[in-house]
Structure prediction request, 260 residues.
Amino acid sequence: MLAWDAFAHQHNTPGAGAGKATLRLLPCYVSFRWFLEMPSERQTVVRAEIVKINTENPEPSLIRYAAEQIRAGQVLGMPTDTFYGLAADPLNLRAVERVYEIKSRSRHKPLSLLIESTDQAEDLAKPLPDEFYKLVKRFWPGPLTVIVRAGSRVPLKVTANTGNVALRVPAAKIPLAVVRAAGIPITATSANLSGASECTTAVEVRDQLQERISIIVDGGASPREIASTIVDLTDPEARWKVIREGAIPSQEISEFFAQG
Prediction:
């Protein structure tokens, strides 16, 4: 970019008058990058669009809008029955990569999925063990995440190359309605930066993720402030193992299996 720089020249040449100053304009070049690297207070930060949806009676038009955005490859902040999560199409590898980027999450950590039913679980997993059907009949819908062997439909990127997939049917109307409207499962990893505290409101998601995310569904405050309990059913010898205690106490899971 061409600009001009004023240069005052003092000289004592004959006939010009001793000590007389003249003003010359010299060309100089300024990079466009200088303008792009202006102080942050001069830059405009794009704030996320917040879409308010009724928690108890989700508006169909707004649910369709959220589902369409997910199907189009967007990543949305969304309430669940635990913390707010990042909702994306797990079959869209570009969208999955965006989830990892938004959270600054290690690619070695798999993503959990929200589904609408046991039938959908069967579409995403290899033949499920008897323990799965017993467990989900008792605790789904609700804050129980179950890890099973992933079927061929689930991208390895979602499983972080483990070959396992974590599934949950949420006991919250908004995410369940979005899953049904989209016709696909959605990712459910918490909507926060890795290592930071989980978010329980749409405003907390916006404040923490800022320009990393463009749309947040506001379904009010989370009904609880504790994560889901995770049970691993992928080891045929151990049969089941609680790998994270959350909203459902480990003892309750143990007592359930002890009853046969």
In short: Residues 1-23, 25-43 have pLDDT under 50 and may be disordered. The CA atoms of residues 25 and 32 lie 21 Å apart. The chain has two domains: 2-39, 48-258. DSSP finds nine helices and twelve strands in the chain.
